[in-house]
Design a protein that fits this description.
281 residues; alpha+beta; Diaminopimelate Epimerase, Chain A, domain 1; 4 helices; binds the ligand N[C@@H](CCC[C@H](N)C(=O)O)C(=O)O; DAP_epimerase_AS; Diaminopimelate epimerase
Length: 281
């Protein structure tokens, strides 16, 4: 199987061009390629596919093989892949995802995509649609018990589920211990991505993330968008915020009137290669 490894703010995935390759069992293939010791090493697998309703389609799988509806860093990398490889010459690309059609604007330097702005659509705050098991109209700054401690959570879906927790200092979070406890908490029937957010000032936040199905990653695009919406709901920041992640920075604009979130950030190729996948996978 031919692949390209790409990253957006250090959130790295194996991309397969399904106009040329067939991936029969993507859940299993994602586990194999993502393994950082016995595979290529990545946060998951992303398939670039033909679409009947948009220019391209994305399917994305976490490192544990579970499928997600959306991947913010992944959609930017797909825009770079299809443009740089001459699969389109459009500077506004439409992409079908399990969370609807997303529109990607590419910014090029010397003919190659450097940055991409994505219309991430409307944030969803209704608990039953995130989903979060809470008998409320919206989950803002709600107290929950996790591993014997109280945390205050704000729930937002960007097509995939997020739980945002504000902390004094992201460096002091024992994320390997607390991340899985959030992910598998009974409040979240489809598990959850958890963002730990430190407010730097009204235009800047620092974020660490525990991703559903993968663990701690260096960045999460949907998570950055969900966090900026959560900041706005808690009146902690303005609506245009730079999110500092372990692997880089994303610029997020929350347009409350239009009810949409725009994410802008980089996309880079790491390497290309070929891997033998057993027939049963
Ligand atoms: N890293 C991604 C999100 C990947 C999916 C997530 N782990 C989930 O299961 O929903 C991003 O950049 O948005």
């Amino acid at each position: 199987m031919k692949f390209t490894k790409m990253q957006g703010c250090g959130n790295d995935y194996i991309y397969v061009n399904c106009f040329e390759e067939t991936v029969e069992n993507p859940q299993e293939v994602s586990k194999v390629v993502s393994d950082r010791h016995f595979g290529i090493g990545s946060d998951g697998l992303i398939l670039i596919q033909p679409s009947d309703v948009a220019d391209f389609r994305m399917s994305m799988y976490n490192a544990d093989g579970s499928e997600s509806q959306m991947c913010g860093n992944g959609v930017r990398c797909i825009a770079k892949y299809v443009y740089d490889n001459g699969m389109t010459d459009k500077k506004r690309i439409s992409l079908e995802t399990k969370a609807g059609i997303k529109y990607l604007d590419v910014f090029t330097e010397e003919g190659k995509v450097k940055r991409v702005s994505v219309d991430m659509g409307s944030p969803i705050t209704m608990p039953s649609q995130i989903p979060i098991r809470m008998d409320k109209d919206i989950v803002i700054d709600e107290a929950v018990q996790v591993m014997g401690n109280e945390y205050r959570i704000t729930g937002v879906s960007m097509g995939n589920p997020h739980c945002v927790v504000f902390v004094e200092d992201t460096e002091k979070i024992d994320i390997e211990r607390i991340g899985p406890a959030f992910e598998y908490h009974a409040l979240f029937p489809e598990r959850i991505n958890t963002e730990f957010i430190q407010i730097i000032d009204r235009k800047t936040i620092r974020m660490r993330v525990w991703e559903r199905g993968t663990g701690e990653t260096l960045a999460c695009g949907t998570g950055a968008c969900a966090s900026v919406v959560a900041c706005a709901l808690n009146e902690l920041t303005e609506d245009e915020v730079t999110v500092k992640l372990l692997g880089g920075e994303l610029f997020i604009q929350y347009d409350r009137e239009a009810e949409k979130v725009i994410m802008t950030g980089p996309a880079e190729v790491i390497c290309t290669g070929e891997i033998e996948i057993e027939k049963s996978k």
